[in-house]
Fold this sequence. Notes:
By secondary structure, the protein is an alpha/beta fold. Helix content is 29%, strand content 13%.
Amino acid sequence: MQAAPDIFSYRKFWAHRFGVSPQLPMSKQEMELLGWDSCDIILVTGDAYVDHPSFGMALIGRLLEAQGFRVGIISQPDWTSAEDFKQLGQPNLFFGVTGGNMDSMVNRYTSDRRIRSNDAYTADGEGGKRPDRCVVAYSQRCREAYKGVPVVIGGIEASLRRIAHYDYWSEKVRRSVIMDSKADLLVYGNGERQVVEIAHRLARKEPIKDLTDIRGTAFVVKHGQREEWWEKDSTSVDTPGKLNPPVDPYQMKTATSCEGSKQASSKPDDGAQVIQLHIKRAEIKDKSRTVVRLPGYHDVKEDSVLYAHTSRILHLETNPGNAFALVQQHGERDVWLNPPPIPLTTSEMDGVFDLPYSRVAHEQYGDKNIPAYEMIRFSVNIMRGCFGGCTFCSITEHEGRIIQNRSEDSIIKEVEAIRDTAPGFTGVISDLGGPTANMYRLACKSEEIEASCRRLSCVYPGVCKNLNTDHTPLINLYRRARSLPGIKKILIASGLRYDLAVLSPEYVKELVTHHVGGYLKIAPEHTEEGPLDQMMKPGIGTYDKFKAMFDKYSKAAGKEQYLIPYFIAAHPGTTDKDMMNLALWLKRNGFRADQVQAYLPSPMSAAAAMYHSGKNTLKKVNRKGGDIVVPKGIKVRRLHKAFLRYHDPENWPMLRDALQKMGRADLIGNGKKHLIPTWQPAGTGERGEGKRTGKTATKSFRTQHVRHTPKSKVKPLRRKRR
């Protein structure tokens, strides 16, 4: 894979003489105390400012500070005018804009598009402190505040909207966020490498319009302006492997071709006319000057099959070792995406996490509680990235498939810092993980294979034979961390890939014996093959194998511990029958869900393309065939959620009606083999008419999804009312 300059190898900017700030300033008064007359860079964020490496604005801010720049923070400004965007004055180099650690739409709305009453990333959990589509609103206000100052957008919200994308909340395909925000540059993925280069080049007085060669960035130019590039049409991109067969040409409704372009000599199986989508077609002479042209915004907006195709190509071009640049036309302009950034090395990761974070919320919040901070303040991030490729997840699209690891010494140093300096620490580290709990130091056995691979997942439909699955480094890390003086317990709260864990019985034994606090959350997501295939998740048999190991080692340790499995309702590819079978499995295994997770199509995810198009984008996409069931509409989504909560009397009328229509009235009755009873408690029903009377007919649990407990130990808990 191509090498990249170490992010700490740049000559420091002259302002490094001001030294390290206790916390990055959020006011002119704080700037004056530091001796600053201005900020070089101002970061605008939709989150409350917590000086902790788990918060993006703190991590990027501290990294830029280490480069010698003076960095200020504007947190959750009033977006109705430009006044709050002037509170630190005009930045010398650029505004950096992010929606925060979460996408602002996911943060504010439930999967049923209802407004959430709280915000975990705001002081005291107060809702409504950020606008919808944060990045767009903030960028426009930065422009109003100081015209001519470059605006660079980044974070997960910008990253997942870097091309034309399906927007679940408006139910339409929206333009790339760089078009709507009118930003100068878009940084996608983890942005350390890109942001450091942008800052130093702007400090050298390079115009921002010339920064078009930085990996992991997107920018806008006039359509057809970059004629020195060789264009490769997206329909000619091959995708080898059983999961990803070569993409056939498509029947296109409209397209334009420059004089001299070649028409395809073959037709798809369905006999549809082949029309190319490129401006010019030429032999690849220099991969570094080759770009794949995607169908344009107006085409994918009107044609969901083209959208599915575009999504598929985008996901195939995410390996930093072999990805082409991408370009997509938006009217008279082109949005260019440079190839993904080169992953950080272990020494660079150590450098980023060893920066002088205060690890507390900014002093302006006083005693206010920030829920997201409370959740992670005693946790340690040991790695980044995920090669699982779950189609509904945004981690891979944002952080990439190549795992970026910290060294064991750096991780232990942070654990010791928490022990010695974190207010309120009681000796328990709440998590030692990251996007996944057990991908630390797992990678392809061959760098050459890794650099050329186009698989969407290293673990589906089975674990790749080229993947190193040795959990020994992680086991050693756990043992070293829990042996530190003053550390009572190391818990693992990150999502566990149990299909990898079962390959290392020693890891499961270590985890279960020492690092589970009574309950362990894992995510089988479903039990049925149809939805699991569309999710790219392993079959339920793998869960059963892991559960057997979990129970075995729990018993050997003399501990009573339970698994809490997560499940998703209404995912693309899920039928009513699938949900019924899942409900039967839940009942057989004694699980009762308190709250349930309904599928939410996050922008740019593969599952969102399935949801929008009704096509299976994991296989050859064409106009005839490849259709999948997509549960849309409030009624079917309510039904699928009701199957997960089969035990709730409020859902029984709906489930009785559905089971009768499905020809499964045999599941309605008062015996153990039945899913729901024939009787109905007074005051309950599908729409919840009237007040609930008497005791609830089901037992709920204090967990987000489901928990398994022997009936003899179940204690009824009062359900909170909103």
